[in-house]
Amino acid sequence: MWKVDLIAQYKFRWFGVLANVKGHHQGAWSWQQGLAFVSREMLAVYQVEENPDVPEVGSRDASGGTGRYFLQILFLAANDGKQLGAMYLTTPGTGSSRLYPTHDGRFLIRTGELLRLYSADFQKLAEQSLPHSLTATSQGSDVAVSPSGRTVYIDYTASYPTQPLVRGHALLDADSLETIANPTPADLALWPGGPAIRFFPNAMSPIGLPGWFTLLGEWQTVDLWLKDPFCYSGFHRITPEVYGVAACNRLRLFAPNGHLLWDVPYTDNVASLRGGQDFIAVESYHIPADPFDLGLPATPLGIKVYNWKKKSEVCMIQASLERPHEHWPSIFHDVSPRDAVAVIEGSELSFYRP
Predict the structure, then answer these.
(1) Using CA atoms, how far apart are residues 183 and 236, in angstroms rounded to an integer?
(2) Confidence label for 235 from pLDDT (cuts 50, 70 and 90)
(3) What local confidence, expressed as pLDDT, does residue 313 receive?
(4) How far is residue 205's CA from residue 219's CA, in Å, rounded to a whole number?
(5) How far is Cα 322 from Cα 334, in angstroms, rounded to an integer?
(6) Quick one: average pLDDT of 115-131?
(7) Which among 277, 275, 272, 253 is positioned nearest to 264, based on CA atoms?
């Protein structure tokens, strides 16, 4: 295990909502942060920073940014935490900024209205502008990478004075960022949730059961065994062999064929799920009773690590910071394909091998 202070050593800001609570940073840009394993050997940490010497109004580049805000990305070796590289990319203060691993060490970087593709050795391979209208009153694009890392889903919404809502979508090749003109179910295989339904709306079960396309292009429905359907919050493909769903303080793991692998003995609220080869990491929190509607903050419990093959809990990484709101993270984490766990709390990045 190794640790590093991201503020002291690499000049990052505080990770999480506490920066805003203390009044040091305001605005949507201050929430753009996270970490992700790009490969087994490399971890990326990213966060949007502000340069107050640059005015907010000025000429804009392809991302939509003026230079006042930039996305700082740090690449670290997973085995010892040594720096492997860094990037600093202009981004707008109001847009989304994020890194997305694809496959074989490649990754995408989104900075506002621009999507870039990089190789494992940091060479830019392609770039693509996201949909943008000069006449829309409001607009935005959501980006998601398929479980295989081979395709990229773009979901665009915009509002106009004469049209309340216009929506469009596209599927891109993750190795070129070129549009896939006629997607097939195989392009969306093993991808639970919205993308498959957006392209093939008639595939979903008539009674509304969730599911995904198999590798053969057939729609696989899954019975979640939920007494209350309003508890369902969506599927997560957390490993190539495991899907997870958290609902009503329950956590269930399913195989790609819909078979229930494990009804995990779990009673806390699930904030996020991540998975590696044999392990899954579950960020959990507790919502206190709030009879007077005072907006009491949720209490972070930490990250529980499970070996899903052995159906056993491996360890608990305790949280040390408050979580001011159930939707505002105080812990950022990811699991590598080799089952290492990286965790950021505040300024500290910690690396574990459970």
Answers:
(1) 22
(2) confident
(3) 93
(4) 8
(5) 20
(6) 97
(7) 253
What whole-number distance in Å separates Cα of residue 248 and Cα of residue 270? 9
Alpha-carbon dihedral of residues 293, 298, 299, 304, nearest 10 degrees? 140
| SS percent in the chain: helix, strand, coil, step 5 | 5, 45, 45
What is the structure's pLDDT at 212?
A: 86
* CA pair distance 116, 177, nearest whole angstrom: 8
pLDDT value at residue 97: 97
What is each CA distance from 193 to 60, 96, 182, 212, 226, in whole angstroms?
35, 21, 19, 7, 17
pTM of the model: 0.90
Is the torsion defined by CA of 32, 47, 172, 195 positive or negative? negative
Torsion over CA of 225, 223, 256 and 193, rounded to 10 degrees?
A: -100
At residue 84, what is the residue type?
L
Q: Of all helices (H) and strands (E), which one includes residue 7?
A: helix 6-10
Q: What is the DSSP letter of 289?
A: P
DSSP annotation string for 161-221:
SS-S-EEEEEEEETTT--B-SS--GGGGBT--SHHHHHH-TT-S-TT---EEE-TTS-EEE
pLDDT tops 80 at residue 141: yes
- In one letter, which amino acid is 324? P
Q: Please say if the pLDDT value at position 61 is more than 80.
A: yes
Dump pLDDT digits (tens) for 335-354: 999 899 999 999 999 999 98
3-state secondary structure of 337: coil
- Calpha distance 89→290 (Å, rounded): 43
Tokens 């203390």 -> residue: 22
Q: Express each pLDDT in 269-299 by its tens digit.
A: 788 889 999 999 998 877 777 777 777 767 7
Give the list of residues 6+ apart from residue 266 with CB closer than 8 angstroms, or none: 249, 250, 251, 282, 284, 304
